[in-house]
Write a structure and sequence with these properties.
CATH superfamily of the largest domain: Immunoglobulins
Mean pLDDT: 91
Radius of gyration: 36 Å
Number of strands: 37
Helix content: 10-25%
Distance between the termini: 108 Å
Amino acid sequence: MKNIFKILVVFILPLLLINACRDDADKNWTSPEANIHLYSTTLSSNTLYPSMANNSFRLAWDAPAGATGNYTVQISTTPDFKTPLALGTATANSYTTTIGALNTALLQAGYSPYTQTMLYIRVMSGTNVSNVISLGVTPYPVAKPIITSPLAGTEFVLNKQTPDAPVATVSWSDYSTYGVAVKYLVEVAKKGQTNFEPAGTVTDAKSLVWTHKMLNDAVTKLGLPANVAGEVSIRVTATTVSAGGTITNISDTVTVKVTPYVSYINLYMVGDASEAGWDNNNSNQPLFRDPVETNKFHFSGYFKAGAFKLLEMKGQWQPQWGQNGGVVAVNDGSTSDPDVFSVASAGYYSFTIDTVAKTYSLVPYTPNSAVYTVMGIVGSATPNGWNAPDSKMTRSALDPHLWSVKNLALTVGEMKFRVNDDWGINWGSNTPISGTGVSGGANIPVEEAGTYDVYFNDSDGSYLLIKQ
């Protein structure tokens, strides 16, 4: 029996000693004996705000007897300081930094913006260590998103035949989580310019899919010419709203190449200075669009005294164009409506507007003295071809120089404008869709069959075809 007891002691005692050493080693590793007394601290607000960035954050402690050397202030997301992060160093028994620096350190340690998390703090000096203090803290975001896709130099050729198909995905990195909703705005601008146009938004997501049409609409507003590769800069803005206010962080730009296709907007006049009045669906007169710089529009004709605005779609109040303080402005449905363009007295005026440069002018105009009673459209694209009778147009009741015809069926071919079914007076040009006809000019190309509303101004030769 005694021999059995001896054998058990021989085997069990070493195991107990090994386990005791292991426990002691673990204890010294994770929770060394505190011999620096770190005083508790508080914040004026446990939720940090940018307005607090320059405020002081101070820690103080009692140095151990005979201690020499620097002190390191450590922070951690856990009380065992398994992965500590150095907040700063001090040569004396106190440390002062700013709330802004503390906020940045918290984010670097993995804290999420707008999410209250426990913060653990201790002080180290050689083998000396302080007690651990803790407090709940909520940081605010400071880092900007980083665009990861597309890569700089990527080329996109947009296709009018597949407007709804995806063409590109814009992706970016940011904080893994937020404690509030974060809205990302993706914008584009011509390389080197600062006039950015919105190109899509997402909330609580880090990517946006562009279709051919979405990207084409955005770069067309920048004034990029069709069928020509242009350099476009992309940026992403992260916006958050909390009790502390609104914070926006804007990414660096990434520049790509985009080849847009021809895409137009139309601008219809509405207001008591126009023939339609304030009815947004009353045969509203459109402006004539430049055939090359499609962001530029003009109209020369008779205005009543009063005011007017411009609408992109008849029957809809947005997108709505006007001016604010002499600068062209637009409400695309997400902002307030702009102010009107004013006409002080009735008469003939020439109005121009550039939707990219955000400029406009309204100056007196002297119309052509000739007044016609019959105006028609003739050509291989029209129902009667090059033969009379022409497709007749309707003259404006307000301005005898303005003509229009609605729902005219045209085929691929050519057309011209002429008076009284006769070639004595006719207008033509070589640009499809829109342009300025001249007396005896070239045949106007019709490149796509369909039903059109056609507008013509015999005073300056401007014409516009709008496919229905």
